[in-house]
Design brief:
about 100 residues, about 70% helix, mainly alpha
């Protein structure tokens, strides 16, 4: 099963590489726009998949480092996702300034 997942992810990565190889600048930009629009719609669901896996493994008391290795994420990304911050720094909620 893990082999199938790796193959599926590899096919997506290969498709993205083929976009990078499009010589016509306009065609490459159009293809990029289509991919980015689709990703924008799916990004939340993709993050949910990561959080569900992390939550399930934490419920089984799997250490963070093992989760990170299994999911091919950094330790910090696993901890951030578990907290609901996503995996990127930009997805963390901003703190409100203290009232003076």
């Amino acid at each position: 099963m893990a082999e199938d997942v790796t193959r599926e992810a590899g096919e997506v990565i290969d498709a993205l590489q083929r976009i990078a190889e499009i010589e016509d600048l306009v065609e490459r930009a159009v293809a990029s726009s289509e991919v980015l629009a689709d990703y924008k719609e799916r990004a939340g669901t993709l993050r949910d998949y990561q959080k569900q896996a992390i939550d399930a493994m934490r419920a089984e008391k799997v250490p963070y480092r093992q989760i990170a290795a299994r999911l091919k994420l950094s330790l910090g990304a696993v901890q951030n996702i578990e907290r609901g911050h996503g995996s990127a720094w930009g997805t963390k909620p901003r703190k409100k300034p203290a009232d003076e």
